[in-house]
Specification:
- By secondary structure, the protein is of the alpha/beta class.
- The chain folds into three domains: about 55 residues, no CATH class; about 90 residues, Beta-Lactamase; about 230 residues, P-loop containing nucleotide triphosphate hydrolases (Rossmann fold), CATH 3.40.50.
- It contains 14 helices and 15 strands.
- A hairpin with a 2-residue loop joins strand 1 and strand 2.
- The chain is elongated, with a radius of gyration of 25 Å.
- The N and C termini lie far apart (about 80 Å).
- This is Pilus assembly protein CpaF.
């Protein structure tokens, strides 16, 4: 014994001991194993616990990626082979992380996928998984990943933002925050739209937290990401098929099940297929106040996007527009810019023209103020007994809004 412990060597020995013994990996067992090492006697408690945490991350956690996933500023961690990129809300930046060899990264990807009960190997070279802490993982192995393995991890915020927090960080302008609260209070059905990583789930999580505690929220998701701060939330998550190709449960099936669960608010985490038909049918049968997210780069893209999804569910264009006009009222567009994630606009879905096709009419646009639909939005809120927020009252000449 040299009198000085090498933390790297000690961690490797403890990790190898657990791998060889195939014993249960618990924090207490890891601490005991570290203490049992001959050169651990010179370690202080802080150093010993640091090594134990590292071994735990290597055996059951995210290994060298664990510190990044624990950083509250990090939203995405991307691994290309042995190179790591991180997004802290200001775009991607490469960071130095000691991942080891390509084989080490492959083993890490397989272990993380296995913790979610999914398979990742040569026969199934890609997988979507949700880790125990809520982190969303997508992994692809070579040869499908030409320079891989590739890992894409979207971190999970343990506590959703409040509306006040979104205002303070600039996501939602302060005068517009009461408009969002009024939309929820009036039980208007809305979609949060935007591109990938624009903050759709973040905003939806926040708004669901504004739902009265006396109401029951039923969530339907492909991957469970929504965790609103609300006392009565139940969630349904889609299931992929097993290795025999059976056992899949899709979002359309779950929407139909959700309708039998007495939902006050039915929420589809992300509309990406024919389930949009079932959602529209549900919202048209007395289930108002529902919500969901939808990928769309601009608000004007939404009708065409809904048409495409409706066709997947067997709903013709004219019928789709009729359903949307009756079921959905509001679009909340978010985008990702240099300043972070921003609420870009609040719009209404209004039928226009002889064919009564739904068009998107802005009620408020960042940097431009009130739009043509501001008065119509105020009227919708007033019809449902909700006070018109001050910013919308300027669309009512001579009126201070309803009392």
């Amino acid at each position: 014994m040299t009198g000085r412990a090498n933390p790297d060597e000690l961690a490797v020995r403890v990790r190898q001991r657990f791998a060889a013994a195939d014993t249960p990996v618990t924090p207490a067992a890891i601490v005991s194993a570290v203490r049992a090492e001959p050169d651990a006697a010179v370690l202080g408690d802080t150093a010993l616990l640091r090594i134990a945490d590292r071994v735990h991350d290597d055996l059951v956690g995210a290994g060298p990626l664990a510190p990044l996933l624990a950083d509250p500023q990090v939203t995405d961690v991307l691994v290309n082979g042995t190179r790591v990129w991180v997004d802290r809300g200001e775009g991607l930046h490469q960071v130095a992380v000691p991942l080891g060899s390509v084989d080490d990264v492959r083993r890490l990807a397989q272990r993380l996928t296995a913790t979610a009960g999914r398979r990742l190997d040569d026969a199934a070279p890609y997988a979507d998984a949700r880790l125990p802490d809520g982190t969303r993982l997508h992994a692809v192995l070579p040869p499908v990943a030409t320079e891989g393995p590739y890992l894409s991890l979207r971190t999970f915020r343990q506590r959703p933002f409040t509306l006040d927090e979104l205002v303070r960080q600039g996501t939602v302008p302060r005068p517009v925050a009461p408009v969002l609260a009024a939309i929820v209070a009036a039980r208007l059905a809305y979609l949060v739209t935007g591109g990938t990583g624009s903050g759709k789930t973040t905003l939806l999580n926040t708004l669901l937290g504004l739902v009265p505690a006396t109401e029951r929220i039923v969530l339907v998701e492909d991957a469970a990401e929504l965790r609103p701060v609300h006392p009565h939330v139940v969630g349904l998550q889609a299931r992929t098929s097993n290795v025999e190709g059976s056992g899949a449960v899709g979002l359309s099936d779950l929407v139909r099940q959700a309708l039998r669960m007495r939902p006050d608010r039915l929420v589809v985490g992300e509309c990406r297929g024919g389930e949009v038909v079932d959602l529209l049918a549900a919202l048209n049968t007395g289930h108002d106040g529902g919500a969901g997210t939808l990928h769309a780069n601009t608000p004007t893209d939404v009708p065409a996007r809904l048409e495409a999804l409706g066709l997947l569910g067997g709903l013709p264009r004219a019928a789709l527009h009729a359903q949307v006009a009756a079921a959905l009222q509001v679009l909340l567009q978010v985008r990702r810019g240099p300043q972070g994630r921003l609420l870009e606009s609040v719009s209404l879905l209004l039928p226009e023209g002889p064919d009564r096709l739904v068009t998107v009419v802005p009620a408020w646009v960042r940097g431009r103020g009130l739009g043509l639909a501001a008065r119509a939005l105020g009227a919708l809120l007033r019809e449902r007994g909700v006070a018109v927020p001050p910013i919308l009252c300027t669309a009512w000449p001579g009126s201070a809004g309803p009392s």
